[in-house]
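Usage

Read records sequentially. Each one opens with the input sequence:
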Amino acid sequence: MKVEAKWTGNYPNLCSGQWILKVNNIDVSHLIPEDLRNEPMNTYRTYQCWHFNNNWEEKWDSYEEGLFCNEWIKENKEWLDKISTDLIIQKEIYEAINSQDWRYGECGGCI
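and closes with the structure output:
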């Protein structure tokens, strides 16, 4: 089973994109709920964020956030089951999305 996920947003507008999800080269993106298609997917990993320090210099920090695989699958079970009820495939979907997941403020394009 081949699972591919792609977030179409990139610098300087990482937050302006959409999810493309393919399973065995079949586009199943339409099965992602509408409210998630253009948003972070809340998978667990280390993310980057930026802010200004007291001297108005850019400061970058790392933080860990999101749901681990089994929690994420449970949270998204309804739409994942429309793609496949096979837990192995659902885990592959998590891993594919996790590799592309993002957070607002992560690319620094809005600095």
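Summary fields computed downstream for this record:
- Residues 87-98 form the longest helix (12 residues).
- Residues 3-98 form one domain.
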